[in-house]
Amino acid sequence: MTAFEVRHYDSVGSTNDEAIRLAAEGAPHGTVVHADQQTVGRGRLARRWLSPPGNLYVSIILRLGLLAARTVELGFVAALAVADAIETMLPKQERATLKWPNDVLVRDGKISGILVEQADDALVLGIGINVLQAPGGVSYKVSTIVGCGGLATVDGTRSALLTALAHWLDIWQRDGFDAIRATWLTRAHPPGTPLRVTIGDRSIEGRFATLAPDGALIIDTDEGRRRCTAGDVGLA
Ligand code: BTN
Fold it and tell me: Which CATH number fits domain 5-187: 3.40.50.300, 3.40.50.2300, 3.40.50.720, 3.30.930.10?
């Protein structure tokens, strides 16, 4: 089981950048960079991730010896861990659901973001979770744990996340991506859900079919079955 060692910072540019720097210096598997705020937090597709105090910003160095083609799997492992961790802090009736590729939603609002980056022979798993602050200036609906009636602190959220992450990393390493994929499918949009995938200035509409064994999104469109490996997904 992965043992985590947390390095705490008041403020950094991006915890992913700090973790990439530490990885280059040889920081071990399980090193966690946690900052109270980020001044240039990064999101997917070169977006900003607004990072005021009151939310969780962590990046975890993982040395798993994986083939590069399997890196994408880690985002799905992380999404399951985030969803489980958040549900331990929410009222019983609230559910954390998943949206391709790695979004975790509560009450249809994005509550977390996940960014996996390569750092030489290590992977850096960056995770942001909205605990108290709903970041403004974004084009999608957002949620926070406390805003959804949860009882949470930033440090408590980190601790719940690392416990859940150790669990899902174990399952992934023991049983492979099939086990992750099967659980992800039970928590994601059901087959048939109308989706719009936006890639740059193009968008494709279709109905969710499945998650491919390599993590690609499979949708059925009027022109036939399509495979998507990048982009943003919204409900059509
Ligand atoms: C997304 O666009 O959904 C991914 C957002 C990832 C944000 C986290 S916060 C901690 C880590 N450091 C960063 O700069 N980004 C990730």
Answer: 3.30.930.10
Residue 10 CA to ligand 1 centre (angstroms): 17
For the CA of 128, the closest atom of ligand 1 is: 9
Count other Cβ atoms within 10 Å, centred on residue 137. 6
Q: What is the pLDDT of residue 55?
A: 98
* Per-residue model confidence as pLDDT tens digits over 133-158: 998 888 889 999 999 999 999 999 99
Asked if pLDDT for residue 235 goes beyond 80, the answer is no
- CA of residue 123 to ligand 1 center, whole Å: 14
123 pLDDT tier (thresholds 50, 70, 90): very high
CATH tag for 194-235 (out of 3.40.50.2300, 3.40.50.150, 2.30.30.100, 1.10.238.10): 2.30.30.100
Q: Which of 21, 34, 49, 57 to mutate to test the pocket of ligand 1 (most atoms within 8 A of CB)?
A: 49
Q: Which of 95-99, 224-228, 232-236 has the lowest mean pLDDT?
A: 232-236
Confirm or reject: Cβ of 206 under 6 Å from ligand 1: no
What pTM does this model have? Answer: 0.96
Domain limits, the chain: 5-187, 194-235
